[in-house]
Amino acid sequence: MGVKRTTTGTRTGTSVKEEAATPKKAPYLLITPAWLVIGLFFLLPLIFIFVISFGARGTYGGLKPIADWGAYLLSGEFLANYRQSLEPLYWPIYWRSFWMAVVTTGLCLVISYPIAYYIAIIAPARWKNLLLALVVIPFWTSFLIRTYAWVLILRTEGLINTVLMQAGLINAPLDLLYNEFAVMVGLVYGELPFMILPLYASLEKLDLTLLEASSDLGANHPSTFWRVTVPLTMPGIVAGIVLVFIPSIGQFVVSDLLGGAKSMLVGNLIQNQFAIARNKPFGSAIAFELTAVVLLLLLAYAWWSKKKGQEAML
Amino acid sequence: MSESISVEIQEVSKRFGDFAAVNRVSLTIQKGEFFSLLGPSGCGKTTLLRMIGGFELPTEGRILIGDKDVTHLPPYKRPVNMVFQSYALFPHLNVIDNVAFGLRYRKLSSSAAQQKARDSLNLVRMAGYEDRMPGQLSGGQRQRVALARALAMEPEVLLLDEPLGALDQKLRKEVQLELKNLQKSLGLTFVFVTHDQEEALTMSDRIAVMNQGRVEQLDASHHVFEYPKTEFVAQFMGAPNFFTGVVKSIAEGLMYIGGRTDADIRVRASSDAWRPEDPIRFVVRPEKLDLRTKSGTSDGEVSIEVTIEDRVYQGVNTVWVVRSDDGERYFIYEQNDRPFQESGRFRVGGRAFMSWNPRDTVVMEKTS
User: Fold this and answer.
1) A59, B25, B267, B268: which is deepest, by most CB within 10 A?
2) Could you report the predicted ipTM of this complex, rounded to two decimals?
């Protein structure tokens, strides 16, 4: 309304002021939906979890009513869940979650880089969209179903064992399912597109003349790769690492379906507190800790890309 | 192979499917020569340059640098360096690291490499910019760094792919002279690709004019300008004034050409292939043509009566566009050495005589 008046009305002092004010308001208006989504679906639940994590478990799975708030806070009892979460009992789970996420990320990077490089640089232009579609097509099926498919492939009477037995390469089926190997396969499989796509995006932007210049100046292919290609695609590499590492460390579906009792991850631990142990406050405490770790990683990433952006601006 | 030859191209072709970007080109480039490949876009000049650099492999033919066959060597094994059209500076490295990039492969100590890079930057007057990132430099500065980076490698041949294309006109003229002087003082072989005939003339010792994957003419630069051999070269060098005539007689190295001119034109018979009654095509450069009110007969000048179609004021020159009675169109440059006048001796739509000295007649090669 204000905008309309300024364009049709006479250009008095007030209308000029309104014109100046409008562009300032516009960004806030435009960003409101984003804030609503983040607030409703991320911040609000996070606050719930944060508050619940200081509570105690009730007899029937709810929250135990607190009789004396002063004593509860002063005695430090409200921190009991966090204390419990740091008990040595859980360390192997955290450690396993961490190294499996690291290995998953590493494997994804090593597998994805050649794929992304091929699609972005080597493949003929008319194939690119098809190849990219092949990367994205798995998303058409539910992640749960795709993970179940791995059960069919890896189990004792599964695809791999049947083929190997038929071929006479093995006498007894291999134990491929319900161990850390199976979880790793599932994790790498599931996260691969999240590594390929950012790598593709940054490789696709790479100026190929720079590779020619490097070769012209005496660098052979490996040398050009490490001195030109890798540094210039670092934004894609880091984005891919962030996109793969974070879901991997909180993953529970894959380890639930493909892992055995010995491959429990922190994601399963949290899920168990809510679904089986019915200890919501404890589950909330671990969930909050995990979220905090992830947020710290994201902050580090934001700091890095800001620094990178400033360098590029220089 | 002779000591003085730097690059030898032998029957080189590059085909993409049915299309021949470079079609059976043979030429030799001398040591210490400023050699230009000149032609319109798509004529194959850049493809030929890229084959010398190793970025494209020839479909057939051989390329020798010095006396070494490099036809199938990758760029990093060739003693040549390239200044790219886009400069191709590494955006993640500062100026000195860009220039020193290739010195790592030269078994130099890192301090020697740094010194060499600095020397090279001095050469192009970019000392003091060592720590800047390429993004902080202007187009002209980037071009200098790209040049320094290639020169630091001390190549046997420096390849330049339209390196001045992105510079504005004034800077471009300056850099042309600078580049020429640098080449002369270093005694390096330069192979320069451009589509700008003036640029090629300013810098080159010799020019190869290319068209549709072939070399149309290879000569000293002034020779290409003054004595084009084909209509394409004449047109490209800014002389689109074509005349048709017929050979009247040939005797003792002289040939008389008859046609629509008021008198027969006497020219040196450039080839003994001509026979009387042969149809012949020739050109006269626009600046060698004069517009007269009377049929020009002084000093043996020849002339044709024409109709004036247009007059274009271009500052240095006035261009007269005229048409002969057989329908051919000609351009005449008149130098503006007198103050501009709205109406002169000639008016658009009027009749006049176009005259020239017969020695300025350039006969086109005989096409059998």
Assistant:
1) B25
2) 0.87
